[in-house]
Design brief:
The chain contains 11 helices and 16 strands. By secondary structure, it is α/β, with parallel strands linked by helices. The two termini are about 15 Å apart. Bound molecules: nicotinamide-adenine-dinucleotide (NAD).
């Protein structure tokens, strides 16, 4: 008997994926990880300093399915996205690869969704303005996901590239997107930073009381976007303690001794599960240190696979032949 694998392209995902469903799936994944019903070995980095980039391998299991994402990060890539990925979605009972799908759009959506979940629990309920530092691929889904949870009056955006600013404005005519200097971006109720920088661009004095920051860009050792004084003054929630300490926004402040691990208030899983609060009062600054977890990929891949099989999308292929072992 033959069994086929479903191949799903970027365009298949584009037609199937909806941010509301991804936000729900990602929130469930954080809860499952906290409940220990999801498994996630550490992310493996393959550094490529000679090519100004890196690869990461990210495995996870939720219930009867497991995924691995093979993803790169190449800032200043030549006519290609900074981040591209492929996800293999497998059946845990047999090991069979049920699907191979584009992980590029999946990454954008699950990363936006994690910030939406964090903002839901950590930002002030009356938040009306969003600031985007960096307007590239991840920023688009930060805007999509956070504006799904909050009714925003204005989105202040800054990027070194005017072209990226223009593109994000064109992509979201339904939202009041305003080009602004970084200082004004930082003065918003909720901020998402999605640049690949390796030294801080957001200054402490720009951040107002009560602000929530989703720090997304720092996802490998040596990267940081925020003035360490912001981290020192904030309630800090991380997606995963080891991964964030190694490569998240807190990695440099930890290594330089600005903070110790005791400064980490909680994981997002603990907050979602109600074990710790996301915010204690209206005045404090909160930071979600997002490094991107394999459980977010696993939950989103399952969602996509179920939608694709229901709606008849993608191309089935006899990729693995049972006779190969005969
Ligand atoms: N935390 C996560 O889960 C996660 C997931 C995916 C990507 N990332 C990281 O997020 C970052 C952005 O990824 P992307 O796919 O959006 O890349 P991208 O290249 O599409 O966008 C990055 C943008 O930042 C801008 N930029 C660079 N330096 C800047 C500066 N000093 N000030 C303002 N803007 C600046 C660039 O012009 C570009 O438009 C990368 O570091 C990537 O590794 C994190």
């Amino acid at each position: 008997m033959t069994q086929e694998t479903l191949i799903l392209s970027y365009h298949d995902l584009e037609d199937l994926i909806e941010i509301s469903m991804v936000i729900e799936a990602v929130e469930r994944a954080f809860r499952a990880y906290e409940d220990k019903t999801a498994k996630m070995p550490p992310k493996v980095y393959l550094d490529l300093p000679e090519f100004s980039g890196d690869f990461r391998a990210m495995p996870a299991q939720i219930g009867e399915h497991a995924t691995i994402k093979w993803v790169n990060s190449h800032p200043k890539n030549l006519n290609l996205p900074t981040v591209m990925a492929v996800v293999i979605y497998s059946d845990c009972r047999t090991g069979f690869p049920l699907a191979i799908m584009d992980g590029t759009l999946l990454t954008m959506y699950r990363t936006g969704a994690a910030s939406a979940v964090a903002s839901k629990y950590m930002a002030r309920k009356d938040s009306k303005t969003l600031g985007l530092a960096g307007c590239g691929a991840q920023a688009r889904t930060q805007l999509l996901a956070i504006s799904h949870v909050f009714d925003l009056d204005a989105v202040n955006v800054f990027d070194l590239s005017e072209d990226e600013v223009r593109k994000i404005m064109e992509a979201h005519p339904e939202v009041n997107v305003i080009p602004a200097p970084l200082e004004k971006v930082s003065a918003c109720d909720i901020i998402a930073t999605t640049t690949p920088v390796r030294s801080p661009i957001i200054k402490r004095e720009w951040i107002r009381e009560g602000t929530h920051i989703n720090a997304v860009g720092a996802d490998a050792p040596g990267k940081e976007e925020l003035d360490p004084a912001i981290i020192q003054d904030a309630r800090v929630v991380v997606d995963e303690i080891e991964q964030a300490s190694n490569g998240g926004e807190i990695n440099v402040p930890l290594k330089k001794g600005f903070i110790t691990r005791d400064h980490i208030w909680a994981t997002l899983g603990e907050v979602v599960a109600g074990k710790k609060s996301g915010r204690e009062n209206e005045r404090e600054i909160t930071v979600f240190d997002s490094t991107g977890l394999a459980i977010q990929d696993a939950a989103t891949a399952e969602l996509i696979y179920n939608l694709a099989t229901k709606e008849g999308r993608g191309t089935w292929m006899e990729l693995v032949h049972p006779a190969a072992v005969a």
